[in-house]
Amino acid sequence: MSEQQSKINSPISGGVPAVFVHVKDLKLSIQWYSHLLGLSATDTNPSTFYIFRLENGANIFLVQSNEVTPSPHVLFSLPTPNLEQALQFFEQNLIEIVKEDEETIHFKDPDGNIVMACNI
């Protein structure tokens, strides 16, 4: 917590346990995010959603939706210790890069949702 922030009495904690990403093709998105995250897909026959449980305790829920309107803004960020390696990975895997700077790379998932890789 920064020096400017002060703790107030609230029943809500500051953690973000889950992010929900709406996708058209659940199986395709599971494969894509599995490859991106370096994780194995454990459910080979998902129904309407799939959960990636990340090392930091957060979860990415992929939710099957008939219509997906991608946000023009970043949905969530993923840490990377090496932006140059991440950039090479994106280029090798034909992942569309939207923006890059010294600390972040914004890129699109198969549905056009913008995700950010960052080393901050």
Automatic annotation (TrEMBL):
Secretion signal, residue range per the UniProt entry: none
Record-linked InterPro entries: Glyas_Bleomycin-R_OHBP_Dase, Glyas_Fos-R_dOase_dom
Residues passing through the membrane, by range: none
Domain Glyoxalase/fosfomycin resistance/dioxygenase, residue spans: 19-115
Highest taxon of source: Bacteria
Gene3D superfamilies: 2,3-Dihydroxybiphenyl 1,2-Dioxygenase, domain 1
Annotated protein name in UniProt: Glyoxalase/fosfomycin resistance/dioxygenase domain-containing protein
Source organism (scientific name): Paenibacillus prosopidis
Taxonomic lineage: Bacteria, Bacillati, Bacillota, Bacilli, Bacillales
